[in-house]
Design goal:
alpha/beta; 15-stranded parallel β-sheet; two-stranded parallel ribbon
Length: about 475
């Protein structure tokens, strides 16, 4: 391996997981020097102990502690991620210790927070010390009161960022408006290329936040725009080309740059939407990824870009094949002739073999599929339809086929399903399960590896 140029080795190592990089660093002195910056560019904390160990190591190195090959962790940290979810609350003393070493992390460009929000000023410290922050990802697990002026200015005090993702489990709205501090952070970042707001909100009298109100006050030109969950858009007002709404004006002004777009489900039923959104046929020319309801998919299928769309996630407030939505969906699907990835998992739609056949016929070039099958469908019926595709990745509720016998704890029907996949889908590389039955996953993963070389992964989505 050492006879390769270092540049080639870095390209090879660039996408390797942390465990692999750790093993590689033990191979040789030269490989360690190459791998070390990659190993620490994205540091993830899952608890207070890991945070404490990291801060102590940085302090030791800064004070002349023992170094190997003059390599310092702080020199190579590009992103800090505080994980753990709603079960982890980082200690104030540990966060203050981290704040004291931020000055040594001159390469820091990104921050992800996915834990209980702290009461300390760690966000203010990062904003003051780390001027190069470009990427912010915040998951607000708590019941978040977005208009608490004593707190939100520090949480939403970043400026000049290029990538912003905010998700919330329960955010309070005052009169249907987003936090003024959040809006100001977006306004203070005119070079945003990614804006992703996935907010579950509540409040009186308006439980949703209005998209037009937001875009009336900001001026950005993102390539990725994802407005999901409790965002609200008046479709009838949006469709009026004679009196453009703020969001329509924004979309038509910047549509030529957007490659990924996600739009929320409207408050009204899909059947009551305007027959046409009256968008010019050449709208969104470089769009390649879209998330939206069947109504949005139908409107998108009328545009020239439909033939270039590669990835589609369908949002449905009810089962996909209920009422007259089936024809609208399949007609739209047929227009997306270049579609390679389709996600129709909504927790309510369970496909029969016949419905799967209709999807396969309308999207023959699919390589990645996420869906849920009806529980009484046989593996043979599902497999025979999937065999018509050059499928490389499947995410499904395959372990809902599990059937235990009195003499065996092994999931017999899952085994049939796996063997059918291996038989009918020779290109299949990855299978993910929508459930989390880890014991069964490990057992079936062994079959897949032994018989067909398929990697089995576990998704954290539950039906």
């Amino acid at each position: 391996m050492t006879i390769l140029y270092p540049e080639l080795l870095l390209l090879i190592f660039d996408d390797a997981p942390a465990q692999t990089l750790t093993s590689l660093s033990l191979c040789s002195h030269q490989i360690r020097i190459l791998v070390f910056p990659l190993l620490y560019r994205h540091v993830v904390f899952k608890n207070n102990k890991e945070l404490s160990q990291f801060s102590s190591r940085v302090i030791s190195e800064a004070n002349g502690g023992t170094l190997i090959d003059e390599l310092r962790i702080a020199d190579h940290v590009h992103h800090l991620e505080f994980g753990g979810g709603s079960d982890v609350e980082y200690d104030e003393d540990e966060l203050e210790l981290l704040a004291s070493v931020l000055q040594h992390m001159e390469a820091l460009r990104g921050l992800t927070w996915s834990a209980v929000l702290p009461k300390t000023s760690i966000f203010s410290a990062i904003q003051t010390t780390c001027k190069g922050i470009q990427n912010i990802s915040l998951h607000l697990w708590d019941d978040f009161y977005g208009h608490d002026d004593d707190y939100t200015p520090t949480l939403f005090g970043f400026k000049g960022i290029t990538r912003l993702e905010i998700s919330a489990d329960a955010m309070f709205l005052d009169s249907g408006k987003l936090s003024s501090s959040m809006v100001e952070m977006i306004r203070a970042s005119p070079n945003l290329v990614t804006l992703d707001l996935s907010l579950n909100t509540y409040g009186y009298p308006h439980p949703k936040w209005d998209i037009d109100t937001l875009f009336q006050s900001i001026d950005i030109a993102p390539t990725t725009l994802r407005l999901r969950k409790a965002a609200d858009l008046d479709l009838h007002a949006f469709s009026d080309s004679t009196k453009p709404t703020p969001f329509r004006s924004f979309l038509l002004s910047h549509h030529e740059k957007i490659t990924s777009l996600a739009l929320p489900a409207p408050q009204e039923d899909f059947a009551h939407g305007p027959p046409s959104l009256n968008l010019p046929p050449d709208t969104l020319p470089v769009l390649r990824e879209f998330d939206g309801t069947i109504y949005w998919c139908s409107q998108l299928s009328k545009l020239q870009v439909a033939a270039k769309l590669e990835s589609l996630t369908v949002l449905s407030e009810r089962g996909l094949f209920e009422d007259d939505k089936r024809d609208m969906f399949l007609e739209a699907l047929g227009a997306f002739s270049a579609l390679k990835a389709l996600n129709i998992f909504d927790g309510q739609t369970y496909l029969s073999a016949e419905e799967l056949k209709a999807i396969v016929e309308n999207a023959p070039h699919l390589e990645c599929l996420t869906c849920a099958f009806e529980r009484d469908e046989t593996a043979a019926a599902i497999g025979s339809q999937l065999s018509c595709l050059n499928l490389r990745a499947l995410t499904a509720n395959m372990f809902r086929y599990i059937g235990y016998t009195s003499t065996s704890n092994r999931p017999e029907v899952s085994e049939e399903f796996v063997r059918t996949l291996a038989k009918h889908c020779p290109a299949l590389v990855t299978v993910e399960d929508l459930d989390q039955r880890d014991d069964d996953v490990r057992w079936v993963a062994t079959i897949l590896r032994q018989e067909s070389g398929i990697d089995l992964e576990v998704s954290r989505t539950r039906i």
